[in-house]
Design brief:
It contains 4 helices and 35 strands. It is mostly beta strands.
């Protein structure tokens, strides 16, 4: 067996037998320790990313078949509680090079098995399922599963085996714990028909091939085969974990379409946003803010830097931001102050920011943001992805290469000041009757471009509103005792259902801040009064 297939086993040593004194009863020997568990592997098969892509191409030429679910009556009984009582045995950890790998068990929410293989020297060997990988309670329904059942997914552990730093579980979902060791939003291999009136299609990674390069780096290569009714795909994810900085994944994807797709989502990110300082009035909870992510950041093809604060709308809302060859986009958690969350259980202040950097020209299209109503933090209600301008057709092949950064912030260097707070409230002046349909916006910006500027330095508000919405007043001023500038303006939006606003600060015709793109549904705030 090659070194990459080493199983870390902790052998239980029994006590040494003491010498028996004359006339004393002979002690009964302890039962012999069970032999150390060693995994079984399939036969070696040639492997490369090109071979995996050829398999995906061949699959796309054949009809789709739903994944076979063995013993569904048993999986039905492995509910949430039963599933998480099944623990992977640390001593059964499989190492790929020097990287510890553990597996997730199947259950009612994870019914489709995935094939797990390790790669070394251009050959792949499948790790075969065995119930002895797991500790199961005596009454666990999982004990009724047969030997060849399969795994639900996997995770890669840190060297001390105490925590994992990346996991793949369910569909084509995966996530890391970022720079601050706190899981949050998820990425996906692909999104199909998200936010449409037709059912969304969820592709799945059906096979994984894990490889450790021989260069001694901290890099792991994760190969994945993807399948769904509309598309197949081969993915190569060169993944590096750097403690204190987060993870970087260089992803090559090769997609092969069985049938047309109305809305294709490349590099999809899925997150949760309930409320922040923007819509605090709508969150009936003791904590100041609850969200994995507070905004969508984009650098458009022309270099414009954009910030779109997230919302929790009263209906499903899809927003499209048209550009050509985007420089990057991502769902970002900018607010890192613990006091703004006050949650020492789930630590929203430590959730990763994820940035997508295209490594090849992506052409014309739009970054799309889908926001879904939620009244709790347990639901992922935010999706962002790149949607090409031309929908793919049956028989078409597409390639997308990009880099995923999981860290504290977007890895974008810019002198422009960034949005650090977006607040919305009733329009008008305190002490006077509040006019119906008027909303007040207070946007705080911080960064090198506004440092040291005073009110006499010609800082100018730049605000664009849709037709039928009036700007009542607007002014900008430095925030006393800080390096921030604040843009304040009122709008009259009587009868408007959705208002899209574009705002930034400028000086002598040059932008000082990123572009703030706000969207508000006045009726939603009217109901909250």
């Amino acid at each position: 067996m090659p070194a990459a297939l080493v199983l870390v086993a902790a052998l239980a040593a029994g006590p040494l037998a003491a010498e028996t004194a004359p006339g004393q009863p002979i002690p009964v020997s302890a039962p012999a320790a069970e032999p150390a568990f060693a995994p079984a592997y399939g036969a070696a098969q040639p492997f490369s990313f090109d071979l995996l892509a050829e398999r995906a191409r061949a699959m796309a030429a054949a009809p789709w078949h739903a994944p076979e679910v063995a013993q569904p009556e048993v999986l039905e009984r492995i509910d949430y509680d039963a599933h998480w009582r099944i623990r992977f045995r640390p001593e059964a950890t499989v190492t790929v090079g020097d990287v510890p790998m553990q597996f997730f068990h199947l259950g009612t929410y994870f019914r489709s098995p995935v094939k797990m293989s390790v790669v070394e020297g251009g050959e792949a060997r499948e790790v075969l399922y065995d119930p002895r990988f797991f500790d199961m309670p005596e009454d666990s329904p999982a004990r009724a599963l047969t030997q060849g059942t399969g795994f639900a997914g996997f995770r890669l552990m840190r060297p001390d085996m105490k925590t994992d730093w990346i996991s793949f579980l369910g569909g084509a979902y995966f996530r890391t714990d970022g720079a601050l060791r706190q899981y949050g939003l998820s990425a996906r291999g692909l999104a199909i028909n998200t936010g449409l009136s037709i059912p969304e299609e969820f592709p799945r990674f059906s096979e994984f091939y894990i490889e450790k390069p021989q260069d001694g780096s901290a890099t792991v290569i994760i190969h994945a085969l993807m399948d769904s009714p509309s598309v197949t795909g081969a993915y190569r994810m060169v993944t590096t974990n750097t403690e204190g900085q987060g993870q970087v994944m260089e992803i090559s994807s090769r997609l092969f379409f069985r049938q047309p797709v109305e809305r294709l989502g490349i590099g999809p990110l899925t997150s949760m946003f309930w409320y922040s300082e923007t819509n605090r009035v709508l969150g009936f909870d003791w904590r100041p803010e609850v969200h994995d992510t507070d905004g969508l950041m984009m650098v458009m093809g022309n270099g414009e830097q954009v910030w779109r604060p997230l919302h929790n709308p009263s209906r499903v809302v899809t927003s499209s931001f048209v550009t050509e060859n985007p420089q990057g986009f991502g769902l970002i958690q900018r607010d890192r102050d613990y006091e703004n969350y006050e949650d020492d259980g789930v630590f929203y202040d430590k959730r990763p920011a994820v940035w997508i950097e295209p490594l090849s020209p992506w052409g014309k299209g739009q970054v799309q943001l889908v926001e879904i109503p939620t009244n709790d933090e347990i639901y992922d209600n935010i999706v962002a992805y790149w949607n090409p301008a031309e929908p793919p057709q049956a028989g078409q092949e597409l390639d997308f290469d990009y880099r995923l950064h999981w860290g504290v912030d977007a890895p974008v260097s810019s002198p422009l000041a960034r949005t650090v707070a977006s607040r919305i409230g009733a329009g008008g002046v305190p002490g006077h009757p509040r006019p119906a349909g008027h909303l007040k916006f207070a946007l705080d910006f911080e960064g090198p471009a506004v440092d040291g500027l005073g009110q006499q330095d010609g800082v100018t508000p730049e605000i664009t509103l849709p037709e039928g919405v009036d700007l009542v007043q607007a002014y900008a001023l430095p925030v006393v005792g800080t390096d921030r500038w604040r843009l304040i303006f009122d709008i009259a939006a009587n009868g408007a259902e959705t208002v899209d606003i574009r705002a930034y600060l400028s000086r002598q015709g040059q932008p000082l801040t990123e572009t703030w793109l706000g969207q508000v549904q006045p009726a939603q705030y009217d109901r909250a009064r």
